[in-house]
Amino acid sequence: MGEFVCNSLKISRNGKCYVDISFSIKRALALVGESGSGKSLTLKALLGMLPSGFSAEFDYESDFEPVRGSTVAYVPQNPFTALSPLTKIKDQWILFENRASEMMKKVGLDRTLLDRFASELSGGQLQRIVIAMALVTEPKLLLLDEPTTALDSRLREVVVKLLFELQKELGFKMLFVTHDISTAKKLCSEITVIKEGRVVESGPMDIVVSTPKSRYTKALIEADFSNREFRR
């Protein structure tokens, strides 16, 4: 599968442009910025789920159609709110119940957990279940909204390793939205840094992190991403 190239993504409301960026995803791209930089709006635009009143102009080159059907899947930040606490895990797969056991095995979980409720499982188990649910449609692009933020350092390592291995096996592309560059470095080969809806810096992860060109990027890199989000 070739590169996903976003030549231009503009998100506006009432004549004001909140996001005006471009990026490309060769394998795995980290989209990094402080709170309010436009990360979440970008994700919602790619999912076709912009808030009421917002509109998007999207020019891209790809061998698949984003914002359509099952080609794009989403992993939210907090697995505790992504799943119903009142329904057994097996009953939350909807159309793909027949593949639940197969996907649980793929993310390293025993199928017996399907008979449990979300409240009976750990954060790491729930996040892996959410990842399994996202991948059951065999997406070509996986959007990840800070999927390790709610996990401790040990579980963060488990989930990052799992995503890396699943991508090698299944071949999907990843857009990893985060403020945590230390975690993104372990998963992503490219990085795009945004501020107030505009690209500040973009390029290979190792080059941008080792020799940042902007003060903003340098400040993000130096912040303690493991414990808190960078704020102005």
Written overview of the protein:
The protein is α/β, with parallel strands linked by helices and 232 residues long. The protein has a single domain, classed as Rossmann fold, CATH 3.40.50. Helix content is 31%, strand content 26%. The chain is built from 8 helices and 9 strands. A 6-stranded mixed β-sheet has the order 5-6-7-3-8-9, with helices on both faces. The chain is globular and about 50 Å long.
TL;DR of this structure?
The protein is an alpha/beta fold and 232 residues long. The chain has 8 helices and 9 strands. It has helices at 39-47, 79-82, 100-106, 123-135, 153-170, 181-187, 205-210, 215-222; strands at 4-13, 16-25, 28-32, 54-61, 72-75, 141-145, 173-178, 190-195, 198-204.
Rounded radius of gyration (Å): 18 Å
Taking strands numbered 1, 2, ... along the chain, how are they ordered across the largest sheet?
A: 5-6-7-3-8-9
Report the CATH superfamily. Answer: P-loop containing nucleotide triphosphate hydrolases
Parts with pLDDT < 50 across at least 5 consecutive residues:
224-232
The helix/strand order is EEEHEEHHHEHEHEEHH
